[in-house]
Amino acid sequence: MMRELDQSRAALAEARRLEEAFHTSSMDVALVISECFQALAEVRQGNLDAQVSEHVLTSPDELLANFGKLLNDTIKDLKVQMDLVKRQALAIQELSTPVLQIWNDVLALPVIGTVDTRRAAEIMERLLAEVVIRKSKFVILDITGVEIVDTKTADHFLKLIKAAALLGTKCILTGIRPAVAQTLVEIGVDLSSITTLRDLQAGLRECLQDMQKSRPKEPVAH
Amino acid sequence: MAEKSIDAKGLRCPQPVLKIAAKLPEMKAGDILIVEADCPTFEDDVRKWCDRMKKTLLAVNTVGSAKTVRIQF
Question: ipTM for the complex?
Answer without folding.
Answer: 0.84
